[in-house]
Specification:
alpha/beta, Metallo-beta-lactamase, Chain A, eight-stranded mixed beta sheet, 15 strands, about 30% strand, globular, Hydroxyacylglutathione hydrolase, Metallo-B-lactamas
Length: about 240
């Protein structure tokens, strides 16, 4: 199985595994690697079938499975979860509402994020550099994870580019085309309205408090540069055109 590996910033990488057989359309499923202070942290873990590709990609940056210290899941769907089983030394976290999605015995290896006082922010024990934000759409326990060190915002499938071609073949891109298309998509969803879109806008509004340099989704291109402005434009596209 083919994969792409790109460096985003010092100690921050994206691995995109190309999957041509699991889904109806060719797609990339992303996971992310963060290295600092003797820790190696994965954001999401891919499918079980991705393990050879993930291990090969990690080897390119000098990491073995035993050196992965933490796994943080954006949500509990199988294409972001199953690969976690090969990281036996890692501490693993997921939102409590998504624990039921995890297969046994893998579920027993995961702890739940701990809620903070405001109710929609969470924390992972032993990690202080992250804001974990409950976004409440796509799955019952979907979260976004903001890394204060690299200024990367990991949104999982809250917003992603599943099945879309990489702009100019670049995994990390500042593509204006992708930004415009994203805003048009949100505007269309806003016009349709509904409770799921209302949950999406609530989650998106929570992300406006951060100043990311990277918009890291669960599938496809990673956007870079002026990401706070991009998130504001998404939010405006949704609130200006919202119905119901």
């Amino acid at each position: 199985m083919n994969y792409l590996l790109s460096r985003m910033a010092d100690g921050a990488y994206v691995i995109a595994v190309e999957d041509t057989y699991t889904w109806d359309v060719p797609s990339y499923t992303n996971l992310y690697v963060l290295q600092r202070n003797g820790q190696t942290i994965l954001i999401d873990a891919g499918l079980k079938q991705y393990q050879p590709a993930i291990i090969a990609a990690l080897a390119e940056i000098g990491v073995t499975p035993a050196q992965v210290t933490h796994i943080l899941l954006t949500h509990g769907h199988h294409d972001h979860v199953e690969g976690a089983e090969c990281f036996g030394q890692a501490r693993k976290f997921v939102h409590a509402d998504d624990l039921p999605f995890l297969p046994a015995p893998l579920a027993s290896q995961f702890a739940a994020y701990a809620p903070l006082a405001d109710g929609f922010r969470l924390t992972a024990a032993g990690l202080s550099d992250f804001a974990i934000i409950f976004v409440n759409t796509h799955s019952p326990g979907s979260v976004a994870i903001y890394d204060h060190i690299t200024k990367a915002l990991f949104v999982g499938d809250f917003f992603c580019y599943f099945g879309e071609a990489l702009p100019a073949g670049e995994l990390v891109s500042a593509s204006d085309y992708i930004r415009r298309g994203s805003c048009q998509y949100v505007a269309g969803q806003a016009a349709a309205g509904g409770t799921e879109f209302a949950s999406f806008i609530t989650g998106l509004g929570r992300l406006r408090a951060y100043q990311p340099d990277f918009f890291c989704t669960g599938h496809g291109v990673v956007l870079r540069d002026d990401i706070q402005d991009f998130i504001n434009q998404l939010w405006l596209s949704g609130t200006r055109n919202r119905q119901g």
